[in-house]
Amino acid sequence: MDSSGKAGLLLAVTVAFWAGPALSAGMIFTVGDNAGWTIANGPNYTQWASGKTFHVGDTLLFKYNKNFHNVLLVKEPDFNACKNSSAIKEYNTGDDSITITSTGHHYYICGFPGHCQFGQKVDVLAVGSSAAPSSSPTGSSPPSPNAGDRLVGGSLVFLGGLIMAASCVLLGF
Ligand SMILES: *[C@@H]1O[C@H](CO)[C@@H](O)[C@H](O)[C@H]1NC(C)=O
Ligand SMILES: *[C@@H]1O[C@H](CO)[C@@H](O)[C@H](O)[C@H]1NC(C)=O
Ligand SMILES: [Cu+2]
């Protein structure tokens, strides 16, 4: 490999490393996992959501046959009553990618007759962004619950340095 090839490879490794964590800042959740958004085999979406932590910036992926299902963002009373006539928003592509933009509850139901009653409904409770807070990290505020995330970020940066150093050695720089 000539030196411009090496430089290119090093650049690619570097870009991949630094861009990776940025791109993975938001998690992608496929609602219902492999079962998707359906009533077949009656996935329990309460169970699916429990034990997961949803953050602002994460994405919900609703996958379903659009001939038989849709996705309605509704208010809490409509969620509880399975009422489909006053949705805040309707999605019906069969492959809806919904990014969570606010904290709190996000109530989704299927609007097709009987489906919500059958359990095709999910309450996604989102907490704050998983990214480091935008406020100055050098501020005097006490450690936030996000301190752990930042610690992880720090060790990733350290790991990045190691990987770059190793790449230089391997590529003969
Ligand atoms: C779904 O799961 C939740 C939480 O695990 C449980 O409380 C509920 O009874 C389940 N619903 C059905 C219909 O099995
Ligand atoms: C609501 O349910 C009715 C039938 O009960 C159906 O005709 C209508 O298409 C549904 N609306 C939505 C938005 O899913
Ligand atoms: Cu449905």
From TrEMBL:
TM spans (from-to): 151-172
GO CC terms of this entry: plasma membrane
Classification via Gene3D superfamilies: Cupredoxins - blue copper proteins
Keywords assigned: Copper, Glycoprotein, Membrane, Metal-binding, Signal, Transmembrane, Transmembrane helix
GO molecular function terms noted in the UniProt entry: electron transfer activity; metal ion binding
Pfam families found in the cross-reference section: Cu_bind_like
Keyword Glycoprotein: yes
Domain Phytocyanin: 27-128
Protein origin, superkingdom: Eukaryota
Designated name of the protein: Phytocyanin domain-containing protein
